[in-house]
Write a structure and sequence with these properties.
single chain; seven-stranded mixed sheet; alpha/beta; globular; two-stranded antiparallel ribbon
């Protein structure tokens, strides 16, 4: 079965990514387009060329993050402020993105994870009954594949995990793991529910080994009553900028990067869910 989650996109966000520098107020502010001093023609030409070459990656090439954390408390407000533990009491053995998006994410993981032979330690945050990891990355081949999520029944069903922890990161963002424990930290289609993302991203940095990678993936679907306001009020390019900013302000990461990994439908097939990743490596020193 598949969860028919709502699309977390405003109507204006359905426009082509090719128009992203002018379409989003948040992105425009980040690019300095709303500033009193206009960007130089050379800067605009460079931005336009980057957007044409790879419109998703270009968002974080020169994101112009403000000097300080730009979000107020209202950015992380939600329509449903009831405790998350109540919302996740009942297990949901469904997938929240379509099959092509799942395949795209699994393929991306396969290309990005360290080889199985190196026995990387993996941490799946906001985990559930499926992690979308490549088949070889399982308890038969690896010693440490840890899931942290909200529902014990879902986590027990997840065959990719060697162990799991039930924890609400919005209530307590401290990760119950030692420093420098993991080679990779993933979060699949759940970064939009974090109400304390700066603390969580700092914790991801702490538990990652030097040179380890954090991979945040998302589509345009969510439980809208539980997604944060800054997410539901903006579109896909903004979401890339937002997640990139989390890495930036957490500190200790190399420059975040973005990539669209959507598997396009064939000519006679219906369009599928878009899929994006924003990722960064922990600095070596």
């Amino acid at each position: 079965a598949r969860c028919v989650a709502a699309r977390c996109v405003r109507p204006s966000a359905a426009a082509s990514l090719a128009n992203l520098p002018r379409r989003s107020a948040l992105f425009a502010a980040a690019m300095g387009l709303g500033a009193s001093r206009s960007p130089s023609p050379r800067a605009l030409a460079a931005a336009a060329q980057a957007a044409e070459d790879d419109p998703v990656a270009s968002i974080l090439l020169d994101p112009k993050f403000p000097e300080s954390w730009p979000y107020g408390a209202d950015a992380f407000a939600r329509y449903d402020e009831a405790p998350d533990g109540s919302f996740y009491t009942e297990p949901r053995f469904v997938t929240h993105i379509d099959d092509r998006a799942i395949e795209a994410l699994s393929d991306y993981y396969a290309a990005s994870f360290p080889p199985v032979a190196e026995k990387p330690a993996l941490l799946d945050l906001c985990s559930s009954w499926i992690s979308h990891y490549p088949k070889d990355y399982n308890p038969s081949n690896l010693d440490s594949v840890v899931g942290l999520g909200m529902n014990e029944d879902e986590l027990q069903r997840n065959g990719a995990l060697t162990s799991f922890v039930v924890k609400d990161l919005n209530e307590d963002p401290v990760l119950p793991f030692d420093d420098n424990s993991f080679d990779v930290v993933t979060n699949a289609v759940s970064v939009d529910y974090l109400t304390r993302p700066l603390e969580v991203f700092r914790e991801m940095h702490r538990v990652l080994k030097p040179g380890g990678t954090a991979i945040m993936s998302f589509s345009n679907r969510c439980f809208p009553t539980k997604a944060i306001a800054v997410w539901t009020q903006t579109g896909d390019p903004d979401h890339i900028w937002i997640v990139g900013s989390y890495f930036h302000y957490a500190g200790g990461f190399e420059k975040p990067q973005a990539k669209e990994i959507t598997k396009r439908a064939g000519m006679l097939q219906r369009g599928g869910d878009p899929m994006y990743v924003v990722f960064a490596r922990k600095q070596l020193s």
